[in-house]
Amino acid sequence: MRKIICLISVVLSTLGLAQTPVNAYATPEAKQILAYIASLGDNILSGQHSYNEEPEKFYKLAYEITGNYPAVWGTDFYWNSQKDPGERIVKNAIQKHEEGALVTLMWHVGRPTDKPPYSWSESVQNEFSDENWEQVLTPNTALHLRWLKQVDHVASYLKKLEESGVPVLWRPYHEMNGVWFWWGNNPEAYKKLWKILYNRLAEYHQLNNLIWVWNANAPRDIPFDEAFAYEDFYPGAEYVDILATDVYHYDYEQRDYEALLKLAAGKPIALGEVGELPKPNILQKQPKWSWFMVWSNWLETANTVNRVKEIYNYSKTITKDEIKK
Known about the structure:
Helix content is 40%, strand content 15%. The chain is α/β, with parallel strands linked by helices. The chain has one domain (2-322): Glycosidases (TIM Barrel), CATH 3.20.20. The strands form two sheets. Strands 2-3-4-5-6-7-8-9 form an eight-stranded parallel beta sheet. Strands 1-10 form a two-stranded parallel ribbon. The radius of gyration is 18 Å and the shape is globular. It holds the Pfam family Glyco_hydro_26. It comes from Leeuwenhoekiella polynyae.
């Protein structure tokens, strides 16, 4: 019955009759945030990512530059040290929610073949064989059980956020159309992985505070650093609330924007991560982006103070104190 209700929700959204979460049991807070994002029109929420070990640093830097806090605060469940960052992330996410910001969380998780803490090149960005994929997608195999342990671990923190009334723009397994993460470069396997992740979190754990953000990378044709077409990796409208992409080095290609907009078929789209901020003239040509989120230190290494001020002063940009929930 739960799946049937979710399917009805997707059909209504596709028909433009409602912007409802794909999880029909979504919390009132999650429904409210998704409805708000869907109502933005040509306005755009400002956002800033911070490393989980420095949860305030770049968020505060945005304020120091502009005099306004970003509307969206983001961080990452990446576990690369002996101490699990989960409790710290929960604490900071609750704080940001109480301060009035929207919260987005991502998950640079290591391969399920490895144990935490996860090194970057040896785990997060290492290869994942066809045999590994077959096993991780097959119930009751040793590798599938290890994957479940990873998912259940992050679910325990997401549940604490739900219990605290915090809706989460949840964007796991991002940039999947690129060749650099273990979960990428295998379209059919990836789509299955997304679906079983959704089922584990939404069905088994009944996490209803998640707004599901499918976050690809801007397509590019760079040898050994490719990012392939969005649609090849899209798991389907019944598993996704918002479609996002990551744009670095000012690659705001109009054709990529239009391709994502077409794939979204009425769902909101967003700039999940950016390096160089878009200029106002870009946003005038690409008015449907729901938010941008600058990646941590790129705020100062890839953008001038004037560029940051320009986008925050843009008439369509929404800062934290301007959010209407």
